[in-house]
Amino acid sequence: MNEYDSSRMADLLGDSHEMELVDTPEEADVLLLNTCSIREKAQEKVFHQLGRWNKLKAKNPDLVIGVGGCVASQEGEAIRKRAPQVDMVFGPQTLHRLPQFIDASSNKIPVVDVTFPEIEKFDHLPAPKVEGASAFISVMEGCSKYCTFCVVPYTRGEEVSRPFDDVMVEIHQLADQGVREVNLLGQNVNCYQGQTKDGDIVDLAELISVVADVDGIDRIRFTTSNPLEFTDSLIQAFAEVPELVSHLHLPVQSGSNSILAAMKRGHEVDMYIEKIQRIKQLRPDISISSDFIVGFPGETDQDFEDTMNLIHEIGFDTSFSFVYSSRPGTPAAELEDNTPMDVKKKRLAILQDRIVQNAQQIGRRMVGKTETILVTGVSRKDPGKMMGRSENNRSVYFHNDDQSLIGKFVKIKIEEAFTNSLYGQLLLDEGVF
Ligand code: SAH
């Protein structure tokens, strides 16, 4: 989501101020930091970076420095107190006002605007400019689930969906620029409820089927989902829409019912397993990845064991996992937490080790199979090779130097599996499409 927001900021300032991206901070007239506050570590990095930029501002007082994203949203005015070199503080929902903020800053008027003017920003952003065959598109933002560990509802606001017709206009703009794969984004993208011009509501399953009909778009992903409201129609989309990839990222956080309850996730482990089983019946080859939080306050050895059992049962592919990070203002920050950090870190290492083993096994199982790959470019390490992505989002390398393949789908017979990538042979007679 932040990557998408950053690219939209670049598009916007390209249009309004004819700005261009530069390679180093030293060359820049404006420096923007788009921040994340999901865990404490991400937040700390912000002030380290601002410290480095302060030296540049000392040399060039006209340099404009802006902090956007969720740390900005959470800290607001406090950012400028701690780092007075910052000229602009803006939130995820006010980034479309950057042109005005920059004009104000150039006149030495500091700006702090971290309000939530709902979905207004999308009406003020220019058509996206994309490079490459794969693009993100935000379709909803925010979260209304209020899990006890999470800052998102406070920093990004409650769930708001972009109108269906606006999303489709952007999808067509992407397709016109040669995009073949779209990744529909939202903090709980499965809760998408887009209004049409006629006042009807389109859910994510319907959106996916309409996007699949757009000429040129042949691969659809969606990130990230919540097991709640993972509806029957969305499950059915895996049966009905071949463009929807055989990869699902569905965060579960924990395999223990008591921890899920303490997190206020609103479901039990069985519900998660049942949904995955139904999807696997429709797509036996689907790979499932997840997010895990280890060491939530009160997590016992048995709770952790339950998470490991769930990992065993589902056989998750590459996942995101972190030690719980207490976030100011969230209910879980008030909970007693007796588990020592070294125990939490040990649990995380065990979990990650297991997921890596699973991922390697899944990679090895792909050997000998023919995979559809969206070619994204030439290998940086070995210019004799080209690379692309499989449906389950693995990098696949193959020997070839025909640049016209970039942005096209090809069939590759997988021959070797490495830890993070695969190697195979291009099957030209199976087509380039
Ligand atoms: N809305 C989805 C996905 C959220 S993505 C869901 O709730 O399942 C954000 C991810 O960041 C979460 O899945 C969680 O694993 C992680 N995260 C959020 N708050 C965290 C915290 N306080 N400590 C550690 N990880 C956290």
CATH architectural name of the largest domain: 2-Layer Sandwich
How many individual helices? 14
What are the distinct ligands in this entry? S-adenosyl-L-homocysteine
| Structural class by secondary-structure content | alpha/beta
Question: How far apart are the first and last residues' alpha carbons, in Å?
Answer: 29 Å
CATH class assignment of the largest domain: Alpha Beta
Query: How many E-type strands?
Result: 20
Radius of gyration: 23 Å
Identify low-pLDDT runs: none
The total number of structural domains is 4
Name the beta content range.
Answer: 15-25%
| Portion of residues within helices | 25-40%
- Mean pLDDT comes to 95
Strand order of the largest sheet: 16-17-18-20-19
What general form does the structure show?
Answer: globular
- Oligomer classification: single chain
Largest sheet data? 5 strands, mixed, barrel
What does this structure look like?
β3, α5 and β4 form a beta-alpha-beta unit. It contains 14 helices and 20 strands. The protein has 433 residues and is an alpha/beta fold. The chain starts with a helix and ends in a 7-residue tail after the last strand. α9 (204-212) packs parallel to α10 (232-240). It folds into four domains: 2-115, Rossmann fold (3-Layer(aba) Sandwich), CATH 3.40.50; 127-244, 2-Layer Sandwich (Transcription Regulator spoIIAA), CATH 3.30.750.210; 246-365, Transcription Regulator spoIIAA; 367-430, Beta Barrel (OB fold (Dihydrolipoamide Acetyltransferase, E2P)), CATH 2.40.50. The strands form seven sheets. The protein has a five-stranded mixed barrel. A four-stranded parallel beta sheet has the order 1-2-3-4, with helices on both faces. It has a three-stranded parallel beta sheet with strand order 5-8-11, covered by helices on one side. The protein has helices at 2-17, 40-59, 69-75, 77-82, 98-106, 120-123, 152-155, 164-176, 204-212, 232-240, 257-262, 269-282, 301-314, 341-366; strands at 30-35, 64-68, 88-90, 111-113, 134-138, 140-141, 160-161, 181-185, 193-195, 201-203, 219-223, 247-249, 287-289, 291-294, 320-323, 370-378, 385-389, 395-399, 409-417, 421-426.
